[in-house]
TrEMBL record, chain A:
All copies of domain Hydroxymethylglutaryl-coenzyme A synthase C-terminal, residue ranges: 272-365
Coiled-coil spans in chain: none
Organism annotation: Microbispora hainanensis
Key words, A-Z: Transferase
Protein name, as recorded: Hydroxymethylglutaryl-CoA synthase family protein
Automatic annotation (TrEMBL), chain B:
Top-level taxon of the source organism: Bacteria
Carrier domain span: 2-79
Protein name: Phosphopantetheine-binding protein
Species the sequence originates in: Microbispora hainanensis
InterPro entries found in the cross-reference section: ACP-like_sf, PP-bd_ACP
Alphabetical list of Gene3D superfamilies matching this protein: ACP-like
């Protein structure tokens, strides 16, 4: 591998066409509002029953591809979907996504899984492929896509769990984030903290998951520091973006990292959190946990909120239950701010249809069966038109209309 | 290390993280969640106790909802 710069050329977030205010969910479920502050969330994305991991991925990536010329589209020769919401044990989500994005046939298709770490592994794979120069000018499209399987059984994870996707075009003109070559730290070990043992439900041991996250953050950063010269946690990184299952977890991670690796006082830690981590929490507070897209949702938020005017370094931490983690870094600049702003992520999040708790409860049973295999199924897309009508200035979107003899059928609406 | 010293450390760190909790209520049969600690509080308490006592427990051995008595036992085993 060369030291050529590679990384994220463009990035887009799909945070649903519908959302529910988190305060409504807390009230509806009778959850303790004292814990509201731990989530730091205003709304969370809610899928409509014609949405699934395929539509989320396509709806995130289509706006990126629309901006490319034909030659640039054809340069996408690697499509990787990162998901823990697979729709088949053999056939990848990527195969459907490839079709509905209209990508060229001279392209590799792959689906990867390692809980919320998988998009980072996919990004690494894609960037290394580009850097290897085996196919000069080639690009890869990495899409983290997932759906929520959280109902009242998930307790406080229900308001925190989002649905949607983040798409990233990876190439050798990394306008959004140029990955620092060779700068990473890894930490992985086997544990059962959260998992999806069935297409119908998730399991979680919140305590074990939080402790594993904290251990991985400390150890992957220590590994990063061992591999990269002259790293100072306080000065090397201008912004920090961490996997964000909920903001309280990120805050605990940041506090632990600074307590262990710096001499910062509690007041300094708090101020540093606001300054370097705060910008990354805006979109997670509107969408919820996007699984392996969560880190890149946080990155989009950091760049869109902080709007770098000059080159700055972003420290990133990716964690996936089970567990595997990576601390790495990259450089963003004014082009990053422009590139992310062009997607109008904030505008599209604020244009979503806001559901009441009762409307949320109506779509929930349908959403919970999103991944359950069925040979034949019809989805009444028109039944949700009244909700779609609430979206301001909605883009055309892909919708699941049926499953016919196990083949998923989609349409643009 | 005896159980009393470990329990005292858990009491100290719990009150440091969540000052509203009466230390007398932190007994082996109660869980930190029962006492009103959220998941982040619990992680803070457990890591602070491990730091104070210089004990490293593999994190995957902790489980959600464990009573304080089980935490004491876990910490003693790895002391």
């Amino acid at each position: 591998m060369t030291d050529r710069l590679t990384g994220i050329e463009s990035l887009n977030v799909y945070g649903g066409v519908a959302c529910v205010p988190v305060a409504e969910l807390f009230a509806g479920r009778g959850l303790d509002t004292g814990r509201f502050g731990n989530l730091m969330m205003a709304r969370r994305a809610v899928a409509l029953p014609f949405e699934d991991p395929v539509t989320n991925a396509v709806n995130a990536a289509a706006p990126l591809l629309e901006r490319l010329g034909e030659e640039e589209r054809d340069s996408v020769e690697f499509l990787i979907t990162a998901t823990e919401s697979g729709v088949d044990y053999s056939k990848s989500v990527a195969s459907y996504v490839h079709e509905h994005l209209g990508l060229g046939r001279h392209c590799r298709l792959l689906e990867v899984k390692q809980a919320c770490y998988s998009a980072t592994a996919a990004l690494r794979l894609a960037a290394s492929y580009v850097a290897s120069d085996v196919s000069p000018g080639a690009r890869a499209l990495v899409i983290a896509t997932d759906v929520a399987l959280a109902d009242e059984r998930a307790e406080y994870a229900e308001p925190a769990t989002g649905s949607g996707a983040v798409a990233m075009l990876v190439g050798d003109d990394p306008r959004v984030l140029a990955l620092d070559p060779g700068a990473f730290g890894l930490y992985s070990f086997e544990t059962l903290d959260t998992a999806r043992p069935s297409p119908a439900y998730d399991i979680a041991d919140v305590d074990r998951s939080l402790l594993a996250y904290l251990e991985c953050l400390r150890e992957s950063f220590a590994d990063y520091r061992a591999r990269v010269e002259d790293v100072d946690l306080m000065t090397t990184f201008d912004l920090l973006a961490l996997h964000t299952p909920f903001a309280g977890m990120v805050k605990a991670g940041h506090r632990k990292l600074l307590r262990e690796f710096t001499a910062a006082t509690p007041a300094e830690i708090e101020a540093d959190f606001e300054r370097r981590v705060g910008p990354s929490l805006t979109y997670p507070g509107e969408v919820g946990n996007l699984f392996s897209g969560s880190l890149y949702l946080a990155l989009a938020a950091a760049l869109d909120t902080a709007r770098p005017a000059a080159p700055l370094r972003v420290g990133l931490f990716s964690y996936g239950s089970g567990c595997s983690s990576e601390f790495f870094s990259g450089v963003a600049d004014q082009r990053s701010a422009e590139e992310v702003a062009a997607m109008d992520i904030a505008g599209r999040l604020s244009a979503r249809a806001e559901l009441t708790f009762a409307e949320y409860l109506e779509v929930l049973p349908e959403n919970m069966r999103c991944l359950v295999p069925e040979r034949d199924r019809k989805v009444d897309v028109a039944a949700y038109e009244h909700l779609l009508d609430r979206c301001a200035d909605r883009r055309p979107m892909l919708a699941l209309r049926a499953v016919e003899d196990h083949h998923r059928r989609y349409e643009w609406i | 290390m005896d159980d009393v010293a470990i329990l005292e450390s858990i009491r100290r760190q719990t009150v440091a993280v969540v000052p509203e909790i009466d230390p007398a209520e932190i007994t082996p049969d109660r869980s930190l969640a029962d006492l009103g600690c959220n998941s982040v509080d619990r992680a803070d308490i457990v890591t602070a106790v491990m730091e104070e006592l210089a004990i490293e427990v593999p994190l995957s051995e902790f489980r959600q909802g464990a009573p304080v008595g089980e935490l004491v036992e876990l910490l003693r085993t790895h002391a």
